[in-house]
Design brief:
The protein is an all-alpha fold. Helices cover about 75% and strands about 0% of the residues. Helix 3 runs antiparallel to helix 7 and helix 7 runs antiparallel to helix 9.
Amino acid sequence: MLIELLTSAAAEAPKNQFGFMEAMEEGGPVAWFILSIMIIMSVGSFYILFTKYFEQNKVMKQYREGRAAFWKAGSLQDGATKFEKNSAWRQLVEDGLKAGTESEKMTDSLESHDWLHGSLARSEATINAKLNGGLSFLATVGATAPFVGLLGTVIGIYNALIKIGATGSASIDAVAGPVGEALIMTAIGLMVAVPAVFAYNYLQSRNRRISAMLSGFSTDLLANITSHGTVKPVVSAPASAKAKPAVAKPAGATTAKKV
């Protein structure tokens, strides 16, 4: 008997459909439009994160593996070939060589040095600008995504309150569902913004590290060019390069003596 009463009560209870799709339908075309914007923001943020991460890794790897071979080369022209053709380091070397040739045409040694220094600084700035490309999008997403989600929430709550007022029912069952569903948009906005902020700060810190490497390499180039190859930094082989093991002689081998 008790089971039958509980079953009949459950069958008579109002069934409210709450969920993400219901929230989007509640918001209408505006909610779908805002959701599309946040999806574009999220996809764009992760695309920039991964592409920039691999680009930075490539630049730092080229420096670690090519720096020792570059400075051990007979000349800067030969050393430039130790870097890949389109690498940032080869571009800096080639720009420095070009500026060094042009600076020799100047009669004032001070102006010549300033021209060479300025040319290398301009080359550094070009490389840094390329590395920083796309990071402004991450900063924009991190700053605006929560507000875009909040806009979707405001629209969802507004539509929910209009329907509640039209039906004349202000019970917790009628209010909690539509309002709670509208808050999903705010949560989505935060889920888009937080990874973008982390990605921006992480990539910026790596770019600052590369910028310091470029600055040091540019300073060494300037000293080498102005000293006509006399000044060179002391470099060691990269840590990845391991010395070849010595070949052990056979146990019974003897050294031939000269007569």
